[in-house]
Amino acid sequence: MSHSILEGKKGIIFGALDDQSIAWKTAESVKNEGGEFVLTNAPVAMRMGAINELAEKTGSIVIPADATQIDDLENLIDKSMSHLNGKLDFVLHSIGMSVNVRKGRHYTDLNHDWMTKGWDVSAVSFHKLMQVLYKKDAMNPWGSIVALSYVAAQRTFPNYNDMADNKAYLESIARSFGYFFGKEKNVRVNTISQSPTLTTAGKGVKGLDGFLNYAEQTAPLGNATAEDCANYTVMMFSDYTKRVTLQNLYNDGGFSNVGVSQEIIDALDNG
């Protein structure tokens, strides 16, 4: 059901890989609510995924960009504003990668060159993106910039590895850059801390099924789905949240505020 709350709004969506990804679901939800957008991903990710199918489905164009490269980001934003005939109202940063996770390196035995690469892709790219948007004055007043995070930025989840550090850094960038974007441009910057979600990227995390099951049994409302996150992001892009900024917003069924659930206690007692 559409309420057209993004009618007339234009933006960029980073990170749609396939129909399991949150960025993909967000693009579908934004389209359903009347928004227009440019899709982008790194060239290597585009070869792995099906982003062109999404573009066709949503009447969008795809502009490849490596979010760690300033030149790529400048080209992306210039071409996006040209295609969309004006400044942007929303941007979604849905990018995360850890070579150490992919290669199965334990947190106590990280390859630090790989760690730096993952930090650049997962967190520093958010600063680079906002710096280009800020310098180009590419956002409309009351625009909204959102990045996706996870509760491991605040709490220890052993198998989340160096991605936990990346997400903590990402959230700090959102607050720090969001201050200046708010003061100077009236633009909102927030992160959404999503439930563990069965996406193509998420499957690389060791023990993901355990993450999912534990969160499902702990959260009073159960895990938020990729579709739930997409709809929450749409709300954050809309004018209904125009004074919300510098926040890390939990979309996790209440997981982040539960110490332990009765289901977990019962499972331990029965063990």
Strand and helix layout:
Layout: E1 10-14, H1 22-32, E2 36-40, H2 43-48, H3 51-58, E3 61-62, H4 70-84, E4 88-93, H5 99-103, H6 112-135, E5 139-149, H7 163-185, E6 188-194, H8 208-218, H9 226-237, E7 248-251, H10 262-270
Parallel strand pairs: 1-2, 1-4, 2-3, 4-5, 5-6, 6-7
Folded structure, characterized:
With 271 residues, this protein is of the alpha/beta class. The protein has one domain (10-270): Rossmann fold (3-Layer(aba) Sandwich). Helices cover 46% and strands 15% of the residues. The protein has ten helices and seven strands. A seven-stranded parallel β-sheet has the order 3-2-1-4-5-6-7, sandwiched between helices. Strand 5, helix 7 and strand 6 (188-194) form a beta-alpha-beta unit. The protein is globular. The termini are far apart. The model has no long low-confidence stretch (mean pLDDT 95).
